[in-house]
Amino acid sequence: MSGNITFTIIKPDAVSKNYTEAIFEKIEKAGFEVLKRKDVCLTKELAENFYEIHKGQPFFAGLVEFMTSGPIVVAALKKGNAVEDFRATIGKTNPLEAAEGTIRKVYGEMVSRNAIHGSDSDENAQREIRFFFTPEEVEF
Ligand code: RTP
Ligand code: MG
Q1: 117 lines ligand 1 (CB under 6 A)
Q2: Would the pLDDT of 140 be above 90?
Q3: Which of this chain's residues are annotated to bind ATP (predicted)?
Q4: 5-132 homologous superfamily
Q5: Taking Cα atoms as reference points, which of 48, 45, 56, 40 lies closest to residue 7?
Q6: 111: helix, coil or strand?
């Protein structure tokens, strides 16, 4: 059982294809309240920092290039068991392996263009919210 807050990013592929509002509708239909959202453009330095855990992975450079290729939308979400339930709502990392009806299955193309991010732990949800929002923006 996870806590009641998680964090998401609508990635550049989904934003550029105008899927953002449809994805947020799906998120809300799945029972999540959008506490705060905003549009962001990542610099290379910010993207490298956000994904620092993956530094050294063969996909790291491509991931940073992709995440800086266009605007993203970041949001803090609320629901009971938020982290686990949201990971289930978005589906597996590789959209080709994601279950029917999940966000990555519907809106993702491939593992490197998979439409959406979801935090993988309560601790990372808090880190990621602090990474993108000022304390004033997230006085929930
Ligand atoms: P995310 O962090 O974006 O929610 O995705 P995730 O937890 O499901 O996957 P993670 O292991 O954290 O990987 C972060 C992102 O890196 C890209 N990736 N590419 N084998 C590959 O080419 C590969 N593996 C991971 C994906 O875009 C993934 O979302
Ligand atoms: Mg991850």
Answers
A1: yes
A2: no
A3: 11, 59, 87, 93, 104, 114
A4: Nucleoside diphosphate kinase-like domain (3.30.70.141)
A5: 40
A6: coil
**pTM exceeds 0.90:** yes
pLDDT band of 2, cuts 50, 70, 90? confident
Residue 104 CB burial class (10 angstroms; 0-12, 13-18, ≥19): buried
If you take atom 1 of ligand 1, which residue's CA is the nearest one? 117
Q: Convert the pLDDT of each residue in 36-75 to its tens digit.
A: 999 999 999 999 999 999 999 999 999 999 999 999 999 9
Gyration radius of the chain over CA positions: 14
Cα 65 to ligand 1 centre (Å): 13
d(CA 21, CA 133) in angstroms, rounded, equals 21
Cβ proximity of 17 and 114 under 8 Å: no
